[in-house]
Input
Amino acid sequence: MTRIFRLSVAAAALSCTMATPLLAQDVTVTADELAAMRAQLSAMNARIDQLEGELATAKASNEAQDATIAAQAEAVAAIPAPTASKTSIAFKGAPEIKGEGGWSFKPRGRLMYDAGFTSVPESTGRDDGFGNEVRRARLGVSGDIPGGFGYKFELDFAGNEVEAADAYLSYADGPIEVIVGHHNNFQSLEELTSSLHTTFIERAAFTDAFGFERRIGASVSYASGIVSAQGGVFTDNFADTGTNNRGADARLVLSPKMGDTQLHFGGSLHYNDMGDAAATVRYRQRPLVHFTSERFVNTGNLAAQSEFGVGVEAAMISGPFHAAAEGYWQSVNMPGAMEDPGFFGGYAEVGYFLTGGDTRGYKGGKFDRSKPANPVGDGGIGSIQFNLRYDYLDLNDAGVLGGTQNGFLASLIWKPTDYTAFMVNYGKLKYDDAVYPTTTGDTSYSVDAVGVRAQIDF
Output
């Protein structure tokens, strides 16, 4: 403390110690009293010195604590903030989980229920009337694996059977994709477009008649700019692995745009070696709907060494309007035949969305999902699309009389949301050289078919 403070303390102490106030007159203080006062002052100075030491010590301690706290704060600030988890979940009809390193997992499935009527000339003796079925009931998974790999596996439970649809492992590097497993070979725009996105409840007649289906094989695809090229080698499907079929397929597509109009031009080649002297093929087709087992065009079993097919395809999408057409020629190498038969199928169609802002989807050289601009649930009614198609199949050639089918088809599709659809189809199928004659021997007549579908996918 300062000297002034010490003197103030001493004066206060003297004033408290003296029993009587100091007046102007002389006061007599004894030697003992003066000694006692000095002793008190000395004790007070000692105590003050002690308090000053304690105060200095406390101040030093506080400064040390402040320094420690500041250092700790700096250390905490230097610790990196914990990074957020890189796992994400997106919803595309079903949850799609993406994790660190390139992992992803997505459950997938579809359910299609069909019902309707067929009207057949009574004198043919063939079944007609009401029919219905679960057309497809698929469950599966797909996703990515670190390193550029991917997978897809689906099972179909329709028809009281369990069959594999896609079941493959893929690898992608830039514009190249390699697929090994059970998957579509490369025949036809109509065949490669998912059944979820076709404009009729069944694909064009030739795709089923000529046996287009998934097969076990290995393929390579290249896509860059407007060019898509695909090629692969295949055996047979999961249900027929005991055959000796060995085949090769290739497809080339150009997808230029002219303003806002998407164009599509493509071609494909198919070769299949039966590898068995006793092998046969059979080409036939139903009248539009699948829930009837009647087939009015049918080549019956033909001895065959190999098949060779050539397809051409064209399409365009401009706003709510689209058009598409395909032709496919299938020839059969028949041992011992003087002439190998060749068959033909094709279609031409147009379609138009009656709801504003809607257009047909297109991606990767094929038609893709159409997404309503104003779906139900967001204040809209979804999309409504009207389509017309002429479908032709000719199974007559080189002495084979399988018949011809001319189909005049119409469809109306209502999509309330991206992942739901309701379809109504009508078809008038006109036949010549039908395999089932009437009681009068007539093989030229028509069959009417009406089909409806409710579908959902995820």
